[in-house]
Amino acid sequence: MMWTEKYRPHRLDDFIGNLEARSHIIKWLTTWVNGKKPLLIIGPPGVGKTSFVHILSTDYDFDLIEMNASDSRTRDMLESRVIPVLNNTSLYGKRMLLFLDEVDGIYRRQDTGGMEFLSKILKEPTIPIVLASNSRNQRIKELTKNCRVIEFHPIPLELSEKLLDQILSKEELGLSVSEKDLILKRSHGDIRSLLNHAQSAHAQYMTDKEHMPEMDIGPAIEAFFVEGSIENAKDILARSDSRYVDPRFGISPEDRRRDILYAFFTSVVSSRTLEMNTRADLLEILSSIDIWVGRIFQTRNWRLLRYLDEMLVNRIYLPSRSRGISYSQYSFFWPTIMQVISRSQGLKPLLSILSVETHSGHSACGSLTLPYFIYILSNHESPDHILTLLDLDQKQVSAITKEIDLIQKRVTRTLLRLHS
Fold this sequence. Notes:
20 helices
């Protein structure tokens, strides 16, 4: 049995850390009245956000209605699931508590107004609503305006160590001081990670190689691509200061930098030495492993994470030998990034207008509507007249006109090549 399940809290008193935050949540729920602001719990994975809400609802006799917001990103999906809950009472006459987990995963692919819908319904709630997010970032800025924000922090080292000692005692497992220090260091205040590492030590998954100093993600990827032995390549990844993450659930810039699949992806995409077929093969491999990571995070089957390094190395090692690939933190060359940033600034006002007119989120509108709108303008007899109707200033019109000119130039070059 996985220790994450075996030692999962079953009572409110079983939780450690974030005592003040937990007290605020209990007070909020026990004094809730119609129209009271929803609660937004922000904190990294493994600090007890979801488990605390589950046990809280049970102890205070609420019917818990739980939804993973990142799986219901679109407005239509959220509306079809949330509105019936807000308009109905529990089948057994109990009070209801709506829990929307991982709301920071809404602003991703398939997003079409999901965050806007949430922000709207949160203004006048008819039942207690709790939301949870892994990080405080720009994607949930609107939600923070309509919610009372409670922050959960990583579990302090002394409390993590105390819990680890209790579990090791119950399991009658003795570890050296260095082994315990390694477990605590790698867990980063994440109790789920701590339990997984402790169980791995119990099952003798931890080897002497894991006691080697960690390597930063950049040098580790560089070393991986030039390493002549597959076993040494595995050691390099095992010692790297990296992790597997699911970007749907919101990650900080530092988490993104340490995302091992993202590091491989950016290095492969930006390589100037790879042939097209080789690049496609490597990206296909990374994509398939990324699907596994997504499923692991979605099902919370964390024990499978320990197999990913083996899977990654065995599949990508041979195809990447002697290809001249080097580590890159970005998937575009820096001059290209600057050009994209510069051009996007001028298009933001048009994107905002189209987003409202098409009732879609910014990301969906930017990828599905804006390019075709500009292409239509490029073929229109008087695009300036249409732009005037959109109430844009001269600077914004000039930016869009430049995009139209670029399209027309590309079309002209293509026609010349076809007729040459």
